[in-house]
Amino acid sequence: MILFYGKRKIRIKKYNDRHVKCDNCNSRGQIFSVYREYFHIFFIPIFPFGIKTINSICLKCNYIFNGEKRDYYLSITRTPIYLYTGVILVIIFITTVIISNINTQKQKAEYIANPKINDVYLIRQDEDKSTIYYYLKVKNIDADTVELLHSYLQYNRFVSTMSDSDYFVNNEIYRVLKSDLKKYLDSGMINSVERDYSKSSRFMIER
Questions:
Q1: What pLDDT, on the 0 to 100 scale, is given for residue 129?
Q2: 136 DSSP β-pair partners
Q3: pLDDT in tens, 98-110
Q4: pTM of the full predicted structure?
Q5: Are 128 and 185 in the same domain?
């Protein structure tokens, strides 16, 4: 993929001043144009840099004008917010990810505190220098005890769904206390919780 990036200069403000007298032709009327450089990626402004510059020219003779008004217009010109588009998008993205993660963690805690039959937990287990993942499925809930089915396969990397050859082993039931589920969540052992998935999901398969 070709990445287009670099710096560009854009006019951010133009002032028409009919009161300034030209030193060359003595007519009144000057245009002041303020410019700012910015860094871009795919022509999307990321952030401005450098200093603002200003040009002025006589409306009649095009004489390049220098005077006190240049400094005045330069000082009152503010960098437009759109030149920070890239920075703003990054902030929005990070904020969205943080909020989404907070909501996910909150929902996960609610699911663990109130387990339901067919809930599926993705378990992360660290062993020596390696990490394995597998699934546990809530088969039954009896008072303070939760009965879980173990997935047939284990994975040596993070997964978001079961493999096509994976399923829950119906004759292997593990029993844990509800209070233990919260401990597993707090320790990071329960990586995610799936609930209200479709009937066609592989999470429904038991053998």
A1: 83
A2: 121, 150
A3: 999 999 999 999 9
A4: 0.71
A5: yes
